[in-house]
Hints:
The chain has two domains: 8-55 and 383-441, Urease, subunit C, domain 1; 57-377, TIM Barrel. The chain is built from 14 helices and 17 strands. The protein has helices spanning 83-94, 99-115, 141-153, 185-198, 219-227, 242-252, 256-263, 280-289, 297-302, 310-315, 332-347, 361-377, 408-418, 442-458; strands at residues 8-17, 20-30, 33-38, 47-55, 57-62, 118-125, 156-163, 206-207, 210-211, 234-238, 270-274, 292-295, 319-322, 392-395, 423-428, 431-435, 438-439. Strands 3-2-1-4-14-15-16-17 form an eight-stranded mixed beta sheet. Strands 5, 6, 7, 8 and 9 form a five-stranded parallel beta sheet that branches.
Amino acid sequence: MRADASAKQLFLRHALLPGGWACDVLLSIENGFVTSVAENASSAGAEIISGVALPGLPNLHSHAFQRGMAGLTEIRGATQDSFWTWRQLMYRFLDALTPDDVEAIATFAYAEMLEAGFTSVAEFHYLHHDEHGRPYADLGEMAGRLAAAANATGIGITLLPSFYNFSSFGGAAAIHGQRRFTNDPTRFLALLEKSRAAIAGVDDAVIGIAPHSLRAITPATLHEVLASFPHGPVHIHVAEQVKEVEDCVAWSGQTPVAWLLDHESVDQRWVLIHATHMTVEEAAGVAASGATIGLCPLTEASLGDGIFAGPSFLNAGGRFGVGTDSNIEITAPGELKQLEYSQRLRYRIRNVVARNEGQSTGRALYEHALAGGARAVGRAVGSLAVGQRADLVVLDLAHPDLAAVSGDRWLDAYTFVAGRSAISAVWVAGRQVVEAGRHRRHASIVARYQRTMKRLVDL
Ligand code: ZN
């Protein structure tokens, strides 16, 4: 889906601008980007949007294919279930996935993201090879399928081919279940170039890299890859699991976050996914580095990872955004709510992310996730301002939870009460992709997804 090349104007009755709430905003758009913003303007000649217009939220962490597993891992096994038993099931599920399957599932997941308040996605892409672990004739085959899913739905994409070389700290050989992920640095860098070519046909797409985790690399191979990618986003899973932290200490004498801060030039282009288990000193170190932390609250809850140390990171001025990760449930307001509620449960206090008296928690969560998400995806998104992509999520002012309130309370109602049911329309790059809460290609995308899942579940 290409951006609309023609110039157009949208008239927003209510909008959240960088300076706060505004009325009667005239947004001029060319080639998908905002060229001017005028408040208290006339609507003459413009398309009128009468709801509450928010900048679309970036989803900074997705493994699209995992959407197909949602709901399939909720039966207790013979041993105590954990992240690690879930991972065994995930490896079995992807044994059967073809490129067509991945495209069908990713298209469905991306359409759902748009319906649920996300207008960009950072796809942490590690399913590279065929079911036998052999590279496809085109190393970028799977990257092309994700690009096709982005084009079919209109979502903005940052594609992050994942560098996955080993099974555990210190270069332990990859196991059978990881055969579709693994590359040495040379083949990974070739795959990166194929992936760059694969997204060339997607408007405004960005390429980054994703060293999978410190488990999956050695320092030497990580350095080789980073040396060949000096600019652009770098995402890595870190300190998600207690066992991962313990194994890292056994290997290096340091926790994963401390090791990264000590050994790599962690800066603003880095995104540390999860960082669930951090000391106060590590939280301050990450905040000072300028890196963004990518929180995935629904997945972290689903997998029993633990709860992020929110207050110490916020006190240090840290930057975060949110991601849907396993895509167990795709919802932008739901991720923000789970984040705040998990903090309340851990610290037994309320309104944790809002830092000042009188501040709205819904707005604090949303603005943190906009700024951190925009940094993480490395694209001009996250605010309704000149030079930014015209990505809008419009809330329905007739929704019973929004009708009687205004300003920040719209965001509190959206986040904590109404959720995605409050979304009426979504625009990406100046083009409407969701109307009446549904993606415009909803029916055909769902039909293809259902055919795919019927076959996969019956296998
Ligand atoms: Zn992940």
